[in-house]
Amino acid sequence: MENFIVSARKYRPQNFSTVVGQAHITTTLKNAIRNNQLAHAFLFCGPRGVGKTTCARILAKTINCENLQPDGEACNECHSCKSFNEGSSFNIHELDAASNNSVDDIRTLVEQVRFAPQAGKYKIYIIDEVHMLSSSAFNAFLKTLEEPPSYAIFILATTEKHKILPTILSRCQIFDFKRITIQDTVDHLQEICTKEHIQADTDALHLVAQKTDGCMRDSLSTLDKIVSFTSGHLTYQNTLEHLNILDYDYFFRVMGAVLQQDIANALLIYDEILQKGFEGDNFLNGWAEFLRNLLLCKDEKALHLVEVSGNLKDRYKQLSGQLSPAYLITALHLLNDTEINYRMARNKRLHVEMALIKLCYLQQAVTLVSDDATGEVAKKKLVPDGTAPQKLRAPGAQPVTAKTVTEKPATVASIPAAPVTTAPPVAIPTPVNPAPSAAAPTAIPTPSPAPTPTPVATPIATAAPVATTPVTTPPVAAPVAKPVENTAPAAASSKLTGLAAMKEAMAAKQQGNTQVQSTPLTMGAIHVYWEEFIDQYRQANKMTVVSNLVLAQLKLLGTAEVGIVSRNIVQFRFMEEEKLVIAEFLKKKFNNPAIVLTLQLDESQQVQDIGPAPLSSREQFQQMAEKYPIVKELKDRLNMELDF
Hints:
InterPro entries: AAA+_ATPase, ClpA/B, DNA_pol3_clamp-load_cplx_C, DNA_pol_III_gamma-3, DNA_pol_III_sug/sutau_N, DNA_Rep/Repair_Clamp_Loader, HLD_clamp_pol_III_gamma_tau, P-loop_NTPase. By secondary structure, the protein is an alpha/beta fold. It has helices spanning about 5-10, 25-35, 50-65, 80-85, 105-115, 135-145, 165-170, 180-195, 200-210, 215-230, 235-245, 250-260, 265-275, 280-295, 310-320, 325-340, 350-360, 360-365, 400-415, 485-515, 525-540, 545-550, 570-575, 580-590, 615-625, 630-635; strands spanning about 40-45, 90-95, 125-130, 150-160, 175, 200, 235, 555-560, 560-565, 595-600.
């Protein structure tokens, strides 16, 4: 029985040209080798399974190749290349930093660096997972990494660059590996399936590439599992079954139910998804990605961002034509909020079902002014079509427009012309309410005291008929409208005069409200209200406050000034804190907001308790020796000294 080798090892790249998805790195390394511009230390960092260790091995083999190709590739035929492929090269050392992370391991490595290579030009050290080294090991490695021998080259590989000391990073030439795209992964898997004579659908390989998220090693391992599961025939359905991935058909079915506002069908489809073992957050993630793809399919320029197969992309484009961008953006926002709050929801199933119900009636819940043809949201119009914007004018001023000028002759024609001497009285409309209306106000004609005719202003284009009363006037000649420019300032000034009068009335009213009959300040009334103020704290069982208030002395300093005399500084500070409360209480009781509260400190009442100054050790001994001479004798006999 032939020994089976997993695809990740069997199809591991052996030269730079077979590395998938890292052309920006392989090109740089080949040019550096051809131009003989190699650094003494390299750092390969990036996600797992993207070719860091593979590129490190290819670089180590190519550097020592005896017959280097013109394109910068190794020949794989010389003694150095063959020994490397067989794993028997003495010039290439690979070290796992996860199991050799101590200072002793690095010290052993430094001792090996001192010896020149037996064959070949360089001695290469590949340290994988270098971020697992301890801080002491990093520090022990610094000097050798900064100034290695001319024949030594270090290649470090890591998935977590942020864990490496900055002093190490500054000594290395850093290469950042990127995730392998889905299309590159699919192409590589198809090439392997062709070599292994495996029948695989393109949609199935797309699922494998999406599941592994840019990791080629995981893609190859997953391919081996599915080949064993399907006996060498990969289809879309059996790949879905093996990988336990939520099918896109579910999302198309849910979208159809949502567009038809069929809540029951949408909830039944979601229940079917739950019965297959998928969680609600998986459904929300896939549903949001589905709507995102629909939104991208609305624009041909963004179509390449939809990473699905060709047949599925056509279904996306067909469905996206039935939806507007406004609807898709609103639905994405709703799903994003649902996914954020999913973790905090008690009833997670109901939480997702409520989102589906909202999506069913999203068109009715969100009202947007949009173009049916393009789906673009139009801006709101501030002025209806066919209506000219009106200019702002002073209150009471008459608008000057072409419409009023053309309507003026019709208004004048309603007034019959008559001779000056025998003219009958003319009825002129006069508004009953002088208050300004929404339309332009009607000017009231005034009779002239002189027998000569006086020009009278005629009504100008009123919006609605106003109740009128007949007024007899002397005979008038042809009416001439007064200039509009003179009416606006007059109306504005009258309006301002009315505002000033209203302000004066409000001020008088406030002054009248404040002029409430106040109680005169007397010591008797002050003491009565003071006891009432103390009783409030006594009922609240605040005896400390009560004691300070009881000890205070009250004085009448003026007609509206009350003084509080404190006996000590503690009581004085307490009164400062309660000053506003006491003042408001007295103002309310006496109905006098002009009351002023003054605090005073009676220094004569303070207790002057100043004791004698403390004695030093020598003074204490002298007093004791004067009172008890035996103490001095004891000091002299024992040759004791005072402690200063």
